[in-house]
Amino acid sequence: MARALQRMASEIVERCFGADGLVLVGIQRRGVELAERIARLVAQTEGQPPLLGKLDITLYRDDLQAIGPRPVVAETRLPPNLDGKTVVIIDDVLYTGRTVRAALDEFADFGRPKRILLCVLVDRGGRELPIQADIVGTTVTAGPADRVDVSVMELDRVDAVDLVRGAPA
Amino acid sequence: MTVPTLGKDLVGLEHLSAGQIQLILDTAEPFKEVSERPIKKVPALRGKTIVNLFFESSTRTRISFEFAEKRLSADTVNVAASGSSVSKGETLVDTARNLEAMRIDMVVIRHHSSGAAQFLGDRIRSNVINAGDGKHEHPTQGLLDMLTLRDHFKKLAGLKVAICGDVLHSRVARSNIWGLLKLGAEVAVCGPPTLLPRGVEQLGVTVLPRIEDAIQWADALNILRLQLERMEAGFIPSLREYNRVFGVTSDRLARAPKDLLILHPGPMNRGVEIDSDVADGPHSVILPQVTNGVAVRMAVLYLLAGGAPDWVSGSGGEER
Questions:
Q1: What pTM was estimated for this model as a whole?
Q2: Is the pLDDT score of B177 beyond 90?
Q3: Which of A44, A68, B90, B239 has the fewest CB atoms nearer than 10 Å to its CB?
Q4: A:B CB pairs within 8 Å
Q5: Is residue A51 a part of any domain in this protein?
Q6: Number of domains within chain A
Q7: Mean pLDDT for all residues in chain B
């Protein structure tokens, strides 16, 4: 995972021309840790840390009316002004694209970034919306019954990407 | 760990578990930030219709609920008892059933009768939130007081909170007592014997007869409003005497062993139960209480909106 994150960090710097005006926003939960790590890697190569943010998209989900007990809402904290910035959304797994859709809606309520990029550790396919990632750590082919679990050191004491075949939905 | 749910209604804190109260307080945390955003609105309750049914006058609570509802994108209607069909003699249930016939989702009710929220919740399908019923409970006020205490002291377990003043007529006191005790705080009540309910010790609180005792004992004072009608009804000799014996003044606080956090649910009678220099002093969190009120009410609305099992077909759904 370390190598993948290093490569993703380099790609972000390359595509955004340095750390200037760059905001890395991790999606709760695992995306937040990944964003922090990528930010450290960017700071090492560029000598300047990018701005960091975290986003919880629960309140922007399109299925809130349909699901039962409400999911726990985590913290959202973004830099004060996103206008004119380049925002990189960082998440662990890209699947249906609905989380990203919600994140894009939420950004619109916080300002008008110059550009928004999507960076994910794992693209598992199975999109339900016309959304693609700009920077991908790795790609796996997983069916609807499969599960992709990302573990990070900070929360799970281990860095791992596990593909669990045929797990009950 | 399974996350507790709230069920259909929020009638009071007496019958909630510590886990449920914790859930509301924890959920209120992220909602604080929503009110600091440039666009203070999230779409979580889009399409939900909420009626604020107020049979008693209220400014702070009604506005706070209304902000909470609007910041969650719900559609809201305010019904005040005066000037509505209630003043023509319609019963509470009929009023609510008529509103339900217009396909509403939630009712926030304030009523002068204790038990009104429970009564209504048992009879309609919509979620019911108690915004104060008689002398019974005012759960969202209790919750916002607890959130404000937790913000300041970081935890509620072991905290000493003295509730001072007219405990007898206070639904705020009851919600605070039940909620705080469940989360492990120690609670004392302090006030003239005529304004303390008989047998209040049975709730698990200590009775401190003198305000000086409460100031010596407590980490925080929650000072209740002394309703001016109480003087006419003979519970206290005069407002001036009340202030002299039970008023929280800076002179009295100066003799405390430590700085006390000062809470008041409002509206204040300055110079009666609380002096102006205390209300506006450095340890007063009276305005942060109001700010937290919106966050707590957003949390309750959000949690209840997912807690009506008979509406929810095939719960679960994909995580992403």
A1: 0.91
A2: yes
A3: A44
A4: 75
A5: yes
A6: 1
A7: 91
Structure tokens at B186: 């120690």
Q: Which of B67, B89, B139 is nearest to B110 (CA)?
A: B139
Using one digit for the tens of pLDDT, what is the confidence trace for B223-278? 999 988 777 888 999 999 999 999 999 999 999 999 999 999 999 999 999 999 99
Which residues, at least 6 apart from A58, have a Cβ–Cβ distance to it below 8 Å? A28, A64, A71, A72, A73, A74, B44
Please give, one letter per residue, the 3-state secondary structure of chain A: CHHHHHHHHHHHHHHHCCCCCEEEEEECCHHHHHHHHHHHHHHHHHCCCCEEEEECCHHHCCCCCCCCCCCCCCCCECCCCCCCCEEEEEEEEECCCHHHHHHHHHHHCCCCCCEEEEEEEEECCCCCCCCCCCEEEEECCCCCCCEEEEECHHHHCCCEEEEECCCCC
Q: Is A83 on the interface with B (CB under 8 A)?
A: no
Nearest CA-CA distance, residue B44 and chain A, Å: 5
Which CATH number do you get for residue A26? 3.40.50.2020
User: From the list B5, B33, B39, which residue is nearest A69 (CB)?
Assistant: B5
Q: Whose CA is closest to A132, among A154, A87, A101, A92?
A: A101
Q: Which of B33, B37, B72 lies closest to A109 in CB terms?
A: B37
B105: enclosing H helix or E strand: none
Q: How far apart are CA A133 and CA A121, in angstroms?
A: 10
Do the chains contact at A67 and B312, CB–CB below 8 Å?
Answer: yes
Q: List, for chain A, all residue ranges whose pLDDT scores fall below the cut of 50.
A: none
Cross-chain CB nearest to A76 (options B33, B307, B309): B33
Which of A70, A106, A109 lies nearest to residue B305, judging by beta carbons? A70
- Asked whether residue A95 is domain-assigned, the answer is yes
- Give the domain range for residue A111: 2-141
Residue B283 has pLDDT above 80, yes or no: yes
Looking at the domain assignment, is residue A148 inside a domain? no
pLDDT of B172 above 80? yes
Is residue A67 within 8 angstroms of chain B, CB to CB? yes
Residues of A whose CB is below 8 A from B43: 59-60, 105
pLDDT digits (tens, 9 = 90+) for B191-228: 999 999 999 999 999 999 999 999 999 999 999 999 88
pLDDT of residue B7: 87
Question: In this predicted structure, what is the pLDDT of residue B85?
Answer: 72
ipTM: 0.85
φ, ψ of residue B22 in degrees (nearest 5): -60, -40
Within 10 angstroms of residue A81's Cβ, the number of other Cβ atoms is 13
Asked if residue A157 is part of any domain, the answer here is no
